[in-house]
Predict the 3D structure of the following.
Amino acid sequence: QVQLVESGGGLVKPGGSLRLSCAASGFTFSDYYMSWIRQAPGKGLEWVSYISSSSSYTNYADSVKGRFTISRDNAKNSLYLQMNSLRAEDTAVFYCARVGAPKYFQLWGQGTLVTVSS
Amino acid sequence: SYVLTQPPSVSVAPGKTARITCGGNDIGSKSVHWYQQKPGQAPVLVIYYDSDRPSGIPERFSGSNSGNTATLTISRVEAGDEADYYCQVWDSSSDHPVFGGGTKLTVL
């Protein structure tokens, strides 16, 4: 079954850190770019970051640059997002997504909620 | 940074046709993709590359793109089509994706 399953969300205090994971199954993970996209409560979709299939290239939204780090382990079919210096405005559901060509999101996980609050 | 503009809401009666627009500067020169998101669920791709449908998406969903406006058209609208719809392009200047603000489709 082709799917993405996120985990690692939760409640964290401002300034804290959290690591999200995304487990892929049912397809050749190492063939695809992968991405994180978030959605604040009641708001629209906001792209966060993406990583190339071999990890050679990454890109980040200005709102998270320098605080978040995307990575992947193709041997484990897993995508990660290390989030540091978290702020209240980072509160959102975080989705991992498989990037299709030409550059759209063809498969999404169910999302994991990150709440930044004291 | 490239900006995509969508109407906040569109309403349509069952059985009629809904048209959701996505505006952007010379958007006709870009590939536009559309996502459907029902309450409490993850987004689902419904149109890619302007007008292509992924497998499993009904033929009632179609797309077009020209000039400064892309359009998602839903024919013979059903109650189950009620959702938020987002357009998306890839901004080549920044090499990252851009989403529209989303349109809430209400079936009357």
Notes: The two ends of chain B are 36 Å apart (CA to CA). Residues 11 and 106 of chain B are 5 Å apart (CA to CA). Chain B has a mean pLDDT of 97. Chain B touches chain A at residues 31, 33, 35, 37, 41-45, 48-49, 54, 84, 86, 88, 90, 95-102 (CB under 8 Å).
